[in-house]
Structure formats: C-alpha cells, structure tokens
TrEMBL record:
GO terms for biological process, alphabetical: lipid transport
InterPro entries: Bifunc_inhib/LTP/seed_store, nsLTP2
Organism phylogeny: Eukaryota, Viridiplantae, Streptophyta, Embryophyta, Tracheophyta
UniProt keywords, alphabetically: Lipid-binding, Signal, Transport
Residue intervals of the Bifunctional inhibitor/plant lipid transfer protein/seed storage helical domain: 37-94
Record bears the keyword Signal: yes
Name of this chain's protein: Bifunctional inhibitor/plant lipid transfer protein/seed storage helical domain
The UniProt record lists the keyword Transport: yes
GO molecular function: lipid binding
One Pfam family it belongs to: Tryp_alpha_amyl
Secretion signal, residue range per the UniProt entry: 1-24
Amino acid sequence: MKFTTLVCITFIVVLVSFLAPINSVIQACDKIEITGCIPAILYGDKPTPECCGKMKAQQPCFCDFIKNPVFNKYVTSPQARAILKFCGIPYPTC
C-alpha cells in the first residue's frame, strides 16, 4: 500500500512539473512586455537592445495582441511599426 501511494505521488509530481512550463507558454500572450521601449514609444528614440529582445521574444504573440482591444493600440501604432522595423522584426500579417 505504501509503495503504491509513493508511486502515485511521484507520478503526480512529475506530471505537474511537465505541465507547468506548457501552462506558462500558453499564458505568455496575456500581457505585453515593453520594458526598454518606453523612450522609443513616447519620444521616437531608437529602441534599446533590451526593447528589441522583448519584441523578438513576443513575436509569436503579435497576432493575439492585434486581436485584443487592450493591446491593439500598442502593436498597431506608428511607433510600434517603427520599433519593429528598427529591430528587424517583420510586421505580422494576421
């Protein structure tokens, strides 16, 4: 009985540890990260390397951001297009 319980607990721990990274990837598009992009957005400054890195990391989420009325204005603005162009990221065609 104790061995069976131990095996079940181990199975559950392993299963949860595998699902945790999947869950974080699925939820990655629920917020937009613009750290380092504020001067580029507000003042038209050149984007920082940190800003370009954040934009490249979020590239798979751009279509979700465009469809989301909360994030749409940030992704479709002229400033956002300029940042993507400067960072060498193609504008999404959703």
